[in-house]
Amino acid sequence: MTSPNLIILYVKDPAESASFYRNLLNREPAVEAPNFVAFPLDGGFTLGLWRRSKVEPQPSAIGNRGEVAFMVAGENAVANHYEDWRKRGLPIAQELTELDFGPTFVVLDPDGHRLRVCEPDK
């Protein structure tokens, strides 16, 4: 069986995005090239940052059509992440709120990708 293990975000400037994610994830990339940067993530996933102008085939459109979600467990874990990321000055697209699936908030990376923090499914 094949399982997905790479999330790729199209970015304007991989170096700028790498700086953002280096700080956010508190880790170094495994690959750092002019047009692509890759961060290994826990659980066998990798986050790839690909220079948008070099993507082949070129995407037909750009915009917010998805999110990268960070599920954090523990009492007040979502609220604690919110306070930490707010203090770091990350652009908040959705303030800490309660939705059907629990507490959540959304920040934006330098290219406007939505990064949601929420609790894992119970």
From TrEMBL:
Domain VOC, residue spans: 3-120
InterPro entries registered for this protein in UniProt: Glyas_Bleomycin-R_OHBP_Dase, Glyas_Fos-R_dOase_dom, Glyoxalase/dOase/EhpR, VOC_core
Protein name (database record): Drug:proton antiporter
Organism: Rhizobium vallis
